[in-house]
Amino acid sequence: MARLKEIIFCVTNRCNLRCRMCDIPHNKTEELSTDRLKQVITDAARLGFYTFVFSGGEPLLRDDIFELISHAKASHMTACLTSNGHKIDDQVAGRLFEAGVDVVNISIDGPQQIHDHLRGKGAFKTAIEALENLKKHKIEATVATMVCRDNYENMPYIVEFSKLYGVTTIMFQPFSRLFVSDKSREKEFFINKKDLDNAAGIIEEVIERAGREHISINPEGYLRRIPSYLSGEPVGLRHGCEGIYDTCSIRSKGDIFPCWVINDSDKLIGNVGKTRLFDLWDSERHKRIKRMVEEGGCPGCMMSCYDEVFGPNEQKKTHLNKISKLKSPRAYSRLINRLIQDTRGIMAHIGNRYRFYRSYRGSLKAVFKRLVKRFQRSVLPKRSLGKGEISKALQEIKIAKKRLEREL
């Protein structure tokens, strides 16, 4: 069984920007109440998900967002927030810090002219201010970049920009058809076939620069697929995606589908506004729908939340497939050189992730000490436990046991 990874909850469709490549704000839907959302967070923790992503729309338009983040942290989950940065002034950054948010993901699509063209006048300035306020309050910030025809040539700029502002992680994601209602507008964001070589060269430059600056980015296999995807070619995965097993995506009104892409009505798992997430996740209907997806095959996508499917495992399968077709010593030599490059890339990625983690969390020794102190505070009481507290502790042990069984 795949390890449960993250819940990505679109907590609202509302947004204070009108980005050219996103029609989500036009789709006005109901939102779950604070109490219901807290219940979803509690159930996610019980199931073993270790990250809760508050997405949108713009999550900061919810008045209860700080309360929800605090609840996720109290449930021992990592709390992440995606934002355009427009509302993150000094006061909001301070409240996010107090709530305990772990990561805030800010959208940056290029230099000011490009960013404002895609997201609206003044959007770049407020995003910069958001990054500065997050840094002031020692909140980890990452950059999310939507890649399309208008800005793919600015991808190297994003790396240099991230270095300048101390950002250690960039998530590139090509334009997605999912976010545009008018399908006739899709061609505005795709590149021409004649630009494929130029785009491929830019991707290699991004990979090289990010490695040199020790900035974490998507898997190289994922990045190298972006040019062909943006020219209209199918993704063509060689194996299934773990997303339907380890990730849970939830729409603003509470609907759960296997993933963001597989969202036909017959694939609806249920609604967390009506049924507990804990009951839906292990339901027979969910198992049946996963079997349907397995039998029907993954349609493939380039959503960055599933980019790990293009990581080392995909590279391994690609190389094995190539080896079976090799016919000359020279071809073997070229493949071996490529394998060495990929191995170096993987090791560099691991090193970057460790440096990224250490810069915000401290050394492994410091992290261990904090965990020991937390254990002592939460598990070792300074007084006798009452009957109710003992029952609660036993329930927590049962939940922990279930999570451990899932891990094993």
Straight-line N-to-C gap: 9 Å
SSE order, one letter for each helix or strand: EHEHEHEHHEHEHHHEEEHHHHHH
| Helicity level | 40-55%
Class per helix and strand makeup: alpha/beta
Oligomer: single chain
Gyration radius, rounded = 22 Å
Would you identify the regions where 5 or more consecutive residues have pLDDT less than 50? 313-325, 377-383
Spatial order of strands in the largest sheet: 6-5-4-3-2-1-7-8-9
Instruction: Count up the helices.
Output: 15
Largest sheet: 9 strands, mixed
Form type: globular
Indicate the topology.
Layout: E1 6-10, H1 34-47, E2 51-55, H2 65-74, E3 78-83, H3 90-99, E4 103-107, H4 112-119, H5 123-136, E5 140-147, H6 155-164, E6 170-174, H7 196-213, H8 220-230, H9 243-246, E7 247-250, E8 255-257, E9 270-271, H10 277-281, H11 284-296, H12 312-323, H13 329-361, H14 364-379, H15 387-407
Parallel strand pairs: 1-2, 1-7, 2-3, 3-4, 4-5, 5-6
Antiparallel strand pairs: 7-8, 8-9
